[in-house]
Amino acid sequence: MTDNARLLQSRSFVELGARQRARALLDAGSFRELLGPFERLMSPWLPRQGIVPQADDGVVIAKGLLAGRPAVVAAIEGAFQGGSMGEVGGAKIAGALELAIEDNRNGIPTCAVLLLETGGVRLQEANLGLAAIAEIQAAIVELRGYQPVIGLVAGAVGCFGGMSIAAGLCSHLLVTREARLGLNGPQVIEQEAGIVEYDAKDRPFIWSLTGGEQRYASGLVDAYVADDVERIREQLLQLLDTPSADRAGRHAWFLQRLASLGGNCPQLDAAAVRALYQGEAQ
Fold this sequence. Notes:
Blueprint: H1 3-9, H2 18-25, E1 32-34, E2 59-66, E3 69-76, H3 87-105, E4 111-115, H4 126-143, E5 149-153, H5 162-169, E6 172-176, H6 186-193, H7 203-210, H8 212-217, E7 223-225, H9 229-240, H10 251-259, H11 270-277
Parallel strand pairs: 3-4, 4-5, 5-6, 6-7
Antiparallel strand pairs: 1-2, 2-3
Helix pairs in contact: 3-4, 4-5
Pfam families: Carboxyl_trans
Organism: Pseudomonas promysalinigenes
Keywords: Lyase, Transferase
């Protein structure tokens, strides 16, 4: 099939909702949702502040198969509260990962896929959300000792805050060109450091530093793929059979690279950041 023919048949992954994304990745007919919207597991804190909750709290949990192997998928709905993590949604993800760990202990080799579209912890549930994210991170570390945990950041919202740390703990990270990945979001950096340091409205500048292509070129993610359902699924299956780069275990190397910048480092451009993480900066 030519590139043009494939383009005509492509289907955007970014434009799908969380439930549709999970279903699209799993083998046909294997999707089974756990704790779905009809269970009415929603945040008890949002209505108290005049915010309409969502019946699944913006997190979709599904079990199924990936090329025949057991898998659990946790998909965050970026369109609800900016994909922010609260008590209920965080507990759903942590619980799903813990069940996958239990499966592995019982001889069922279950992997996990995290579809990350999140700005981090939900401010209305700050401490509860932070506790849930900590449980997610602990579960990722334990599960990856058995089977791969794949993080996928597709686009629109990106992945920031505490969940960006969770992303860094995954066995592998997969991104699209539309994706963004960073510890602090643009608005937070602008608020704390000023618009001269970081203009949250300068989209080309933001994507040049935290976008999917830049993160891949800097070696901070494992794979970079076009926004197409089939291509993303193909790359995901390939990563499941690829040894992990274990970036979380290379913390000393990353700290050394950052320390090499010194205390009065000027603002870096995209090329300088790539050189830094490729080990070429002086």
